[in-house]
Design goal:
- The strands form 3 sheets. This protein has a 4-stranded mixed sheet. A 3-stranded antiparallel sheet has the order 1-9-4.
- It is of the alpha+beta class and 273 residues long.
- The longest helix has 17 residues.
């Protein structure tokens, strides 16, 4: 990581993504003919671990960022979800072109997804120590700072997320609005929701051996990515997945999920596929 960069204070919101779609006419992968997205299954009644494992997510046609199947209205201040790596790159390209035409983008700069190294550096918030979370090593100190699996009741009023969770209510069974936790939810760089909330895509291809300081491609010569990386954990996750160092490889560049979103980065324009 050789260049300075700016990072979005929050994850891209539903309202911001809506403006992109309305101005550009863009159609997301989930909304295309045959498209589908991974969302919560409202008929899910538990894992049934001793008989058969039943997960609370299913792939559904007809759902998208407009309606992620929450069971309640989507809000413009929620982080946008059910968008793919392709959709995110299109948003960044649109924003770069829009700001460039308005003479608000300095020459040689562009908006993009952050690299994996940029994301982790930003997540740690300037800490000189290697800590599990941006605030320290204790998940208990995260109360009032992040949206994670907690003591909140799911739609229907009878169940909470099973398995490991924090021993408090964060106020939301699913996503919380961006920057909902205010100053306490912002790290040393002033970035909100870097741990928990939704998984955030970065631009790199997933290397199971670990992250890279520079952009990592599946094919270095062709600069291709077929399995993107997500960072930061999400509202459903066990608390340990919200650690700064946790990485997740996504199936492909068209995959979308109601647990996944993104934030943008502003930096020097470089060949990124």
């Amino acid at each position: 990581m050789k260049n300075g960069f700016w990072m979005g204070r929050t994850e891209v919101s539903v309202g911001q993504f809506r403006r992109f779609v309305e101005e550009s006419g863009f159609v997301t992968d989930a909304e295309k003919p045959g498209g589908e997205t991974q969302v919560f299954d409202p008929e899910w009644d538990g894992y049934h671990l001793t008989t058969q494992v039943v997960h609370p997510w299913k792939s559904v046609k007809g759902k998208s960022w407009r309606d992620p199947n929450w069971g309640f209205p989507n809000r413009d201040d929620f982080p946008v979800v059910c968008v793919s790596y392709n959709d995110m790159k299109a948003f960044c390209q649109w924003l770069s072109e829009r700001e460039r035409k308005a003479s608000r983008l300095p020459e040689g700069m562009e908006y993009s997804l952050p690299t994996e190294a940029e994301w982790e550096y930003a997540c740690r918030g300037g800490s000189k120590e290697s800590r599990y979370f941006w605030w320290g090593n204790e998940i208990e100190d995260g109360e009032g700072r992040l949206n994670i699996s907690s003591m909140d009741v799911l739609p229907g009023g009878t169940k909470a997320w099973p398995l490991a969770k924090v021993p408090w209510s964060d106020g939301f069974a699913f996503v919380s609005p961006v920057d909902h936790y205010g100053e306490k939810g912002r790290n040393g760089f002033g970035l909100a929701d870097m741990c928990g909330g939704v998984w955030e895509f970065v631009i790199d291809h997933f290397d199971p051996k670990g992250g890279h300081e520079e952009i990592y491609f599946e094919n270095a010569e062709k600069r291709t990515v077929s399995r993107p990386v997500c960072r930061g954990g999400n509202y459903f996750d066990v608390p340990g997945n919200a650690r700064c160092a946790v990485r997740l490889g996504i199936r492909d560049v068209t995959y979308s999920d109601s647990r996944d979103g993104f934030r943008i980065c502003l930096g020097p324009a470089v060949p990124r596929q």
